[in-house]
Amino acid sequence: MLSLFSLRKETQRRLRRKNRVALHHWSASKITTGSKLIINILKGTAIVKATICQSSLHSFAFVGGLLASSQNQLEILGPSLGRGARPYINSKQRWRNRIEMEFVSPEGLRLDGRRPMEMRQIRAEIGAVAKADGSAVFEMGNTKVIAAVYGPREVQNRTQQINDQALVRCEYSMANFSTGDRMRKPKGDRRSTEISLVIRQTMEACILTHLMPRSQIDIFVQVLQADGGTRSACINAATLALADAGIPMRDLVTSCSSGYLNSTPLLDLNYVEDSAGGPDVTVGFLPKLDKVTLLQMDSKLPIDIFENVMQLAIEGCKAIANYIREIMLENTKQLEYRRGI
């Protein structure tokens, strides 16, 4: 009978000596008190079955370099682990623990109760920051973003001034309380810089910058609460803030994400679905012009499935654009009422 520690040491020793896995020689049981572990090695699949006697106990199995934990049953998919197979492992190669999880139930419902083509509830508010030229708060489910726009105004750094168009700058940040992790996030990290660049390029595609030469427009976006789709929510909030500031635009640019999990296209992914590691497509769209200003995808997809997933995201962008127009029309009516028009 091998303990978890001795089994792990034995695995590392064999990998260093032969640089391959030979699990068919091993047998382990009762790694955790009250649990029984049966390891069956098949060609191309390592199946770990754990039967838990007490609900409070967890069973752990270190199989071929993979540490798995479960309360009921796990199926870990990997390369062939038989004696004739040659899955060479070195320091540059990492195995991914692919635990099969059901994101869409047999009844066609997702983890949060939505249908695959159903969006989360969206809500928007204009004029959240009084000192800004334009501001907005945009919510997509539990994701909440605030955006503020300053400008057009004189360029602060003369070396960055453009004679024939306006300079658009964008700054993205996440509040320390926006996620469950309370670690202080450094300002200007790589992810924030990348998202700032994405938002700036997306906004430049819709702003009529040639009408405001030798000026600058500053867009500040902060995530107050993150639950997936933060990039799309930031773009939607920035669009509302630009409209509130009176910045001339070709069209309202809206954004939405979609993914492909359990062989099903899903619209508007939340954090759990976004973290599943499946294909994720984020689209920025100009509804009236019928043009795409942003397209980002993680992972790979066949071309026919990609077209369906992208079209689903575009439909979500159109729905968000209709909602933003309703919010702007309602805000305009309130301004007319206050001015007595």
Automatic annotation (TrEMBL):
User: Which example biological process does GO assign this protein?
Assistant: rRNA catabolic process
| Matching Pfam families | RNase_PH, RNase_PH_C
UniProt keywords (A-Z) are:
Cytoplasm, Exosome
Is the keyword Transmembrane helix assigned to this protein? Answer: no
Membrane-spanning residues where?
none
Primary residence? cytoplasm
A GO molecular function assigned to this protein is: RNA binding
Every Exoribonuclease phosphorolytic domain range: 118-248, 251-316
Q: Does the keyword DNA-binding apply?
A: no
Gene Ontology CC: one annotated term:
cytoplasmic exosome (RNase complex)
> Where, per UniProt, does this protein localize?
Cytoplasm; Nucleus, Nucleolus
Which family does the record claim for this protein? Belongs to the RNase PH family.
What protein is this chain from? Uncharacterized protein
Q: What is the lineage of its organism?
A: Eukaryota, Viridiplantae, Streptophyta, Embryophyta, Tracheophyta
